[in-house]
Every structure is written in structure tokens, then in C-alpha cells.
## 1
Amino acid sequence: MQYVGNVIRPPSEADSIILQVTVGCSYNKCTFCGAYKDVSFTIKDEAEIKQDLRFARQHCRNQKRVFLADGDVLILSQKRLVRLFQLVHEYLPWISRISLYGNARAIRGKSKDILLELKALGLDRIYMGLESGCDEILQRIEKGETAESMIAAGRKIRGVGIFLSVTALLGLGGIALSKRHAEKTAKVLTAMAPSQIAMLTLIPLKNTVLGQEIQAGKFLLPNPQEILAELSLLIRHLQNVRCQFHANHASSYLPIFGRLPKDQVDLLASIEMAKSGASPLVAEHRRAL
Ligand code: SF4
């Protein structure tokens, strides 16, 4: 496969064929995100995509799923997306699931009928970055969205029956907005009712505005104990949410996961044990994005 730049995929796509159809992110402004800072957004030629599909047809027969990279493939026109999905089925007829990253802006640009057409073509799962449910934080990180626009986008995906995985970022409010970040994020997640919640933990990157603010002492990053308190508060505020809950990303200080609401008490107990020192945290040097 011919990958350009950093190719990032969600942890649950570890066993998928990663087909890179765009390079970078068309938005690329979030102040915490260093994933695609060194590349301009481009859409790969069909010839290149076909070459990768031929490779996958030969070498990836045991992989049943395809993840379309990079940052926000859903931003492509419907014509391109339909062609892309048709190509995947033509070259890899055994594929049972296609998924991609879709930000709120891209989702807003797709009507319900368009999403249903993609679903019929095999779009099974969309990974959406909420990051925070707090408007003040969303504005500060230049996400270009509000809590309300995020809820509308999430509900739209759930409304057409596509699996929605939503990511939020612990630590993104700093020490000052930690409590508000947890409470507002839980509120937005509750309103979205996603199929899966994935909590990551902020790791400052030198090539980002936020990383530089942290280095300059302008943004105070919560310590591991404060991150655990934030996670605990968020879980306690998730009301009537029925979904998979993952806080076991490589950036996490305490890898935990479960189903909500069934495992809410156990998840909170695990956090309390870690806070008391009874169970170890992931060492700083072992954390990664
Ligand atoms: S967080 Fe997502 S939308 Fe924001 S710059 Fe990174 S890839 Fe693009």
C-alpha cells in the first residue's frame, strides 16, 4: 500500500485494510491536533487507489473490513464517495464493513438521503471527533463547531442507523475548565446517544498551537490525578447512555472500558482504585497517540 504522511486510524480498526483515499485533513485548524500539520489536503487519484485495491486483493484476503483514511473522507463529494465504495466492492467483494472519519462539518454537508445511500453501499461506521462539549473550549481549540452543531451532526448519523463512534479528549480544558469540560461533554454525549464513546487523553505536541501554549505556561495541563477526576466526573454525568465506553486508548493513564450503563459502577470503582494508588497508572513515557 502506498501511504503518504501519517496514516492514523481508530484503535478498533487495527485489523482493517487501511485504504488511504485522501491525504491530510481539509480543515486542519484544531489547535491540539498535529496529525496532518505537514501535509496539504489532497484527494488521491483513482489510479493510485486502484493500485492499492489490487494490492489488498492479493495480500489482504483475511481482512474483512476497510477503513478509509485520512482525516475526513466524508468531506468528499457524493459522486466520489459512491465511486469509491463501488470500487471497494468490485476489488474486495468479501468486505463486510466500511468505515471512515467524518467531522461535524462533513456530516452537515450530507443529507439524510445521501447518508442512506452510503449506508446501502456499505458505510457501516463513522468516527467523529467531538473533543469537548463545552463551547468555550471548542472555540479555544478552533474546532469550528458548537455543542449544538455537534449534537445535530451526531443525531443525524444515529438517525440513519449508522454506527457512530465519538471521540473526546480528556485534559482539553486544562486545569481551569476541567470540571466544565467533563460535565458539558457528558451532556453532549448523552444528547447524541452514540454507539461508542472513545476517550483519549491530551498529549501536547510541539507542532501544535496548544503544545506551544503549554510549553509557554499559558495553558496548565491537568496532572494524572486530575485527569482521573475528570474521567470519573464525565462517567457520572453520562445519563441514560447505552453504548460501548472506551478509555483504553494508548494515551490513557488508566486503560478501562465497558458497556454503559451496565458497567458504570465498575468503571467508577476502577478509577477510585487508581486514584488511591491501589492500581498503577500507565507511565508517562509509555503513553502515545
Ligand atoms: S482534529 Fe480532526 S478535524 Fe481537527 S485538524 Fe485534526 S484531523 Fe482535522
## 2
Amino acid sequence: MQQQIGQWYEKHGEKAVELSKELWGYREASLQEFKSCKAVARFMEGEGFAVKQIDAENRGGEPNTVVARWGAGKPVIGILGELDALPGLGQEALPHQAPLEGPGHGCGHNLMGAGNAAAACALKEAMEAEGLAGTVVYIGCPAEETLQGKVFLARDGYFDDLDLALVWHPGACDMNFGEMEMNAMTSVLYKFYGRTAHGAHPWEGRSALDAAELTSIGSQYLREHMTEKCRLHHVYHAAGEQPNIVPDFASIYFYIRSQDDYNEELVRRMNLIAQGAATMTETRMEMEVKTSCHGYFCNHTLAKYTYEAALKVPALAYGEEDYAFARELYQNVTGNPAPAETIPTGLKKPDGEVKYSYGSTDVGEASYVVPTIQVFGCGAVKDMPSHHWGIAAGAGVGIGQKAMLYAGKVLAQTGYDAVKNPKIIEESWAEFREKFGTEKPYVCRLK
Ligand SMILES: [Zn+2]
């Protein structure tokens, strides 16, 4: 590992851990990462970055996004972090279920917010020490869980000048190097407006709830006629208050996931179903598109070089205290005795095989603008389901914190290698151009 990267972590690693704890404590939901944003901004300013805090939606609201820059000229190494928590997953940092009211870091984004910021600082330190030209940009992004943050940021050009984008996301598995493809996702809130009436005189009313339910039923029939990688899921946001009042308002919220090139078609068909439901019930339908995010695809070149960088970093190691916590957590979550390897620490060597994930990440949006890698894994107890209190618990203790420091070194080393060896950026872009047939394929789908 480059010497100054190691030295930065020796001197400042504990500060990064404190930041991750602070974010873990704030546990702010998507687009409300106000305190988290301030905390990360303060940290980056302290490290000598020029920091801007912005509202990702660009509506003049309270800032929820940190953009921190250091250096000058090319190459521009982008490192992206995430800040948001998940509703209803508040949890104490304990190995048994101990709920706290409100959101919790059930996806470990506090580790990304702090750990990936630390990576940017260590990379800066290494470049400064050797007098290397180039720019380091850290973006602490909001609202990954709703797949909005990076869509807004890509739309507004925040990734345009990056030569590479590097991300680490914790997970309950060995560290892999992003050899996956993930679904694109559009989320739509279908809102129905009807006419209210007494429940005993329902012919006088037009039920908005009927329209929402028919939209759900229509979506079940659509499943047979969509391609196999698609996923539809929904919840009701409004469904009336009491049975003796015909609801004049109802809303149903859909996540519409598919392969990237099929997403617009699937959304078109879903919209027709909602419109049809409105026609059937003589209600009026309005739709609110919350986001429309591209799928994530792998840049194999960058995967290979990131793996090579990871091999230069001393292995991730845990102590007995971590393992004791992990064993107890494992048993409480799964009901089974913990396996010998309770906390993943390994590296999965890239082999060119792409695994398809039916989930989505808004890192996908960046992957359409610039060669991007999301390194995924480590920082959670083995087999923890994602979006779970067990992840939140691990993200608040050494299990997550040690992985965060390790992964940050991997990202910093990757950035350093790319600054020293221009081939890494050139080859990553060659693969990017070949995939898309152009250097600028990105079109924001969010209107
Ligand atoms: Zn996540």
C-alpha cells in the first residue's frame, strides 16, 4: 500500500470512525440528511477540501449533499458516499433486536458516508506527498434508498468532470468488485381523485380506493407479460379512513424495475393500467414520478484494477470482541449457531462473470456518465439480510467500522494507482465507450 495512505489512516482513522458513529446516530431518511451533510462537510473542510453543501433536488432547500474538492487539473478521481438511513429500522448497537423509534442504518450507509470520505482524504494525502497533479472529488450523496440522490446529481452535471467514480458499499459477504448488473428503477405514485359519499349510499360516490386496487390487480396481470428480470412492488400511501365513507382520495406507490433498455416500456404499460383503473371507476388519475434511475453495469477493467489495488492493502482483521458480537447477532437473526467465518473478510477475484441483481442502486446513474465501480461487501455479519436491524447493529460497532477503514484504503489505493498509471483511466474509458458506442451516452430519464 502507498505509504501515506497508511499513515493517514494511522493518524486520522479514529476520526473517521467517530464520524461514522455520528452519522449512525443521526440515522436520517432519504432527502433529510441535513445533520449528516453538515457533519461530513465539517470533516472534509478540516481535511483541507473546498466544500459545498447543496440540496440535491436543487429546490433551494436545506442541504443534504456534500461536494468536496481538492487539487487541480486532470485526472479527476471521484469517490462517492451515501448518507441515508431506512425508515423503521432504528436499532441500538446491540447484538439482539433493540428497536429505536424512527429510521436506522439498515443498509450501512453511515459507513459509506464516513468511510468513502476518509478514502478521499487519504488519497489527497498521498497525492500531496508526492506532488502529483490531479483532483479528488468526494460527493456525499443523499437518498440512495429511494434511488433519487444520484439521479438529481447526474441530471445537474455533478459527475460530468469525473474520470472515474469509486464507491464502496458494505454487505454481508466477501468483498466483490462490482461484477454485477442491476435493474433500472422508476418509482411512480399513482394518485386517484374520486367523489365521496356515505358508505350506505355508495352509488353516489366514485371510489378512489377502487381505482388504486384495480391498479394493483392490473399489475398482477402485467407480470405474465413482462420479461423475467422485471420486478414490480407496491404499497398503499392513502386508502381512505373509514369504511362508511367512500374514499375520494387514494394513492398507490410502485417501484417498477427492469433491465435498463426495457424500463420505459414497462413504465408505459403500468401507466396505462393506472389510467385504465381510473376509467373503470370514473375517477381521475395523476401520477408523480419520484425517480427514474438507470441500471448499474460493471466496468470490468476498473474491477480488475481495483482488485489489484485491494491486494496491496493489509487484510481486514477482527478481534475477539467483534467475533463475540457477531456470533450472538448471527444466532439472534438466523436462529442457527454461528459458522466459523462469522464476519466476511475475503476478496472475490473478478472473473469476468456478471451476476444479475434484480435490485437497483442509484450508483447505476453514475455508471452511465463515467466508468464507475461499486465495490460491495464486508462490514456486516455473514448472512445478514439487507435492509435489516442486524445490518444496522453491525454498522454501529467494530464490525462495520473496521471494514470501513479497510475499504477506504482500497478506494484510496485505486485512486492513487489511477493517478500514477494513466492506462487505468484510458482502458476503463475504452470499455465504457465500447459498451455504449459513444463517450456521452447519459440521458436523464427523470423529466
Ligand atoms: Zn445501500
